[in-house]
């Protein structure tokens, strides 16, 4: 029974005629691309900035309603990411205090701190360490 269903799906795909400019995606994938060239049973598809040569049998057409839904999802993901970054910008402190931490703890804290600073565009940061803490100063610049 499942073989009959798979045969029906492949026949249905073969009946779809693709042309240059069609919006498509690879079977089982979410990324939408645009066909820029067709050569026999192969198509050159532009996925963002990436050109890929793909067998036409692996492509699925994307309807305009599906494309709108995908764009809405992208927009909501981007807005939530922007909101998260904005929250980090507002609550970010440009100093990190590693006094009393072991070297491995301090190193991990500084790594996360620098990652966050780079993500939100902070150019100057300051690390606080005690004078007695020469070991962590040797490992953490």
Description:
The chain has helices at residues 2-15, 64-91, 103-120, 134-139, and strands at residues 23-26, 32-39, 42-47, 50-55, 59-61, 95-97, 126-128. With 141 residues, the protein is an alpha+beta fold. It has 2 domains: 2-67, SH3 type barrels (Roll); 78-139, no CATH class. Strand 3 and strand 4 (50-55) form a beta hairpin. The longest helix has 28 residues, at 64-91. The relative contact order is 0.09.
What is the subunit arrangement here?
A: single chain
Number of separate structural domains: 2
The N- and C-terminal alpha carbons lie at a distance of 66 Å
| Main sheet properties | 5 strands, antiparallel
Estimate the strand proportion.
15-25%
Helix/strand order, N-terminal first: HEEEEEHEHEH
Q: What overall form do the CA principal axes indicate?
A: elongated
In CATH terms, what is the fold-level topology of the largest domain? SH3 type barrels
**Uncertain segments of ≥5 residues (pLDDT<50)?**
4-13
> Percent helix among the residues?
40-55%
